[in-house]
Design brief:
alpha+beta, elongation factor, translation elongation factor activity, single chain, Glutathione-S-Trfase_C-like, 6-stranded antiparallel sheet, 6 strands, protein biosynthesis, Glutathione S-transferase Yfyf (Class Pi), Chain A, domain 2, Elongation factor-1 gamma, Alpha-Beta Plaits
Amino acid sequence: NFIIGELKKKLEDYNRILEGRDFLVGKSVTLTDIQLACYIAYPLSLAINPPFRNKVLNLMNWYYRVTAADGHFESVFGRIKLCTKVLAPPKPPKKVEQPKEQKKPKEEKKPKEDKKSDKPEVAPTKIDIDNFKRFILNSPNKVADLKKFITEEFERDNWSIWHLKYDIYKDEGAKLHVTSNLCGGFLDRAEACRRGAFGMHCVIGDEPNLEIEGVWMWRGLEIMPELLDHPTFEYYKTKKLNVDNPDDYKIIEDFWCKGVEEKITGKTCQRKSHI
């Protein structure tokens, strides 16, 4: 409580400083603004609740202005969710007195039985994800080769293909360089997925309505754990694609076979990267 109280005093001081100003120094974002925004980002998400934020509106308007500029802040921190309820510190566990053990009569030792693991066995696969990446990326005739792979080699009960769509926030799709930074930042933080997945992640559409979407394939029929651990994956809508459904197959073909400046699901592809 003491630390939060001291933090609030500092924020109130900055709120007074920002009265009638757009930025701390001058008329544009400077290193001073960026340093302060980085300093208060996590406290705003954990400890500064709405009643207090309403008291420091100069500070909050400044914070929105700085963190939205060019998309660089969000490409590093991800989208910061503001606190709705102050996070309470964990309480120390209560000591529980253990009852004294009563001596039990000795029992005859029984031979140990072999126990089988309750974990589901992973079905063996013939798909080598690294070979598939090289195959589809270097293929001179991607459409025909993809069709052959899906028809003859794709294991429907062992692998799955998913459509990922980022939930664009405010002006994130207004400028190509901002949207591209968000797309690249997502892939940079998805490094743990490279060994077990293949995906094409794209910026599609036109300014100011750009979108970030991708089609990924991984082993397993549910969302891969490495993606669930991704810091910004919660902002993505997902759909498992059925390779036997013509509409779903068209989405896979568009994302995996078409290039920059071509139409993907009816929208111009502006940037394309793979994982």
